[in-house]
Amino acid sequence: MIRESTPVRLESPLPEAVPAGSAITLFCSGTACRAEAFEFVVGDERHSAAAVGMPRFDIPCRRSGFWGVVPVRAPTESGSLEIRAAIRWPDRQLSYATLGRVPVGEPLPDRSSSSRDDELVAICMGTYEPDPDMLRAQIDSIRSQTDTRWVCVISDDHSSEERFAALRSIVGSDERFSVSRAGQRTGFYRNFERSLQLAPPSAGLLAFCDQDDVWHREKLHTLRASLGSAMLAYSDMRLVDEAGHTLRETLWQGRRNNSSNLASMLMANTVTGAAALFRREVAERALPFPDSPGLEFHDHWIALIALAIGEIAYIDRPLYDYVQHRSAVVGNVAGPVPSFPGRKRLRVPRMHDWRAAYFLGYVPGEIRARTLLLRCTDQLTPSKRRALERYLGAGSTASGLAWLLFRPARMLAGRTETLGGEWQIALGIVWRHLAIAVARLPGWPERWTLDTRFPDPARFEHKRLRRWRERI
After folding, report:
1. Chain centre to alpha carbon of residue 263
2. Residues 98, 126: one domain?
3. How confident is the prediction for the chain on average, in pLDDT?
4. Are residues 183 and 93 in the same domain?
5. Between the chain's N and C termini, which has fewer beta carbons within 10 Å?
6. What is the average per-residue pLDDT within 410-433?
7. H/E element, 162
8. 373: in domain
9. How many CA atoms lie within 13 A of 103 on its CB side?
10. In a domain, 340, yes or no
11. Element (H, E) at 386
12. Are residues 23 and 133 in the same domain?
């Protein structure tokens, strides 16, 4: 017998829309009261939930939480994408429920035009409430580039009328610049995605640009010359204060740079967007940017795509000044540790820190890894595919978890690019296994079960990476 209706609720947001024919990965979580087995159904494909029947103390039905990651290929035509659930109940009955529908829009524009100019660089700048003086310095540094084969598109994330007017005034009538103001604020991650979409199709190369840095005159020329056959090239940077005084001549003190190890890049990015120049093919595979819980960074995703489908080149000298100031949109790299209400520093992580390490550490990596496998499978080398599969295996197999736990030992050989962040992610995976095991114990006191609600994103940070940034 199949039930016709079920008490199922999806709590995680679905994308507002996806392009037709695109490959995406969804994080789905919610409640299904007393469900014993749970599968996500998309078209003819089924994907088992990572957890079901988990404790939820914020609703009357305590054993109801579920979550999972769902890789999806959108239909090739406009319409909608239906996300359904197949649920097995204690009486062994099976039921189906619709979790949600995602509109499927037009496919992304075909950028493989024969009119592409592989010499033209589209500089993609994202702005929000830019400081006029800092923005002017950045715009002037772009205009002063020795390499003149560029255009600049500026995507403004719905700044105030006053700041946007100042931006337009600084750009002036320079036809090399185009400015577009978003209808509503979406955050820096989506704003940089929008900047890529605004780049002219003829540009064969692209470069991200922040609103408050200063490029050295030879930046574009050096990146272009160093790109060679690589998919992306990036440089070191000099850290300066708002007055232009040098704080550090290099970013890479106390941490090893990495431009070749995909597993390390998946867990800890080393490519700063403003330092990079990349090929159009990277942008095509990167769009649309994936949705994942917690903080998302455009440069991390671009770096992963570039390394998945090719090589990354590194220029071991600063090519721009990274200005440190308190009003930075993404934060002050050289600033103090942010303070969150109720937060206490403990040497031994507490269980809710382990929970945050799972949902905001491991799961975002899982989403990126599965999206890379969907979009880049034709370009992945066996070793890179194996790196992604090992990361995914860490969440479900003992051998995978052992690989993750022992990976920080690489630091003994000087491979410090992740600063041992694998250990924190591994604790998150251990938390998931503990939560599932405890929830299934018969007669276990409810007060001893683990809280499985989605955590506050502010609860998670890679602690060793944070301490490294503190010393900058």
Report:
1. 15
2. no
3. 88
4. no
5. N
6. 93
7. helix 161-171
8. yes
9. 4
10. no
11. helix 382-394
12. no
